[in-house]
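Practice problem: predict the structure.
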Amino acid sequence: MASPHAPKPARRRGSAAEEARLAIEQADADGVAREAMTLRMTLRDASELKRDPKVPMADISYGPDGMRYLGVAVDQGGGVIQSILDRGDTGYVRGAAEAAAAAPKPKPARKKAVKKEATAAAE
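Answer:
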């Protein structure tokens, strides 16, 4: 008799494209709109996805807002340890990391030079 809490057998990891497709299809089945989803990929997985010969060219598109895979925006900036699909239900904001990195940094304030006459008078 099998226990109802028995662990699931480990599923073998597929390619980056297969894993992303599986996650997107699962989110679709759960009723999540593709416009709300963001595929947050490691740099390695994003590179693998672009070069995978099994992925049809029609599945990947590029536009002014960046790369899309199966109609889902792809954040390929890294910043994650493992590629994940953000379903739009977290605080993650697409493109926020790139905007913060591109923002101009404030220049450090310069210290005013102290005149020698003022220091001699103080002594």
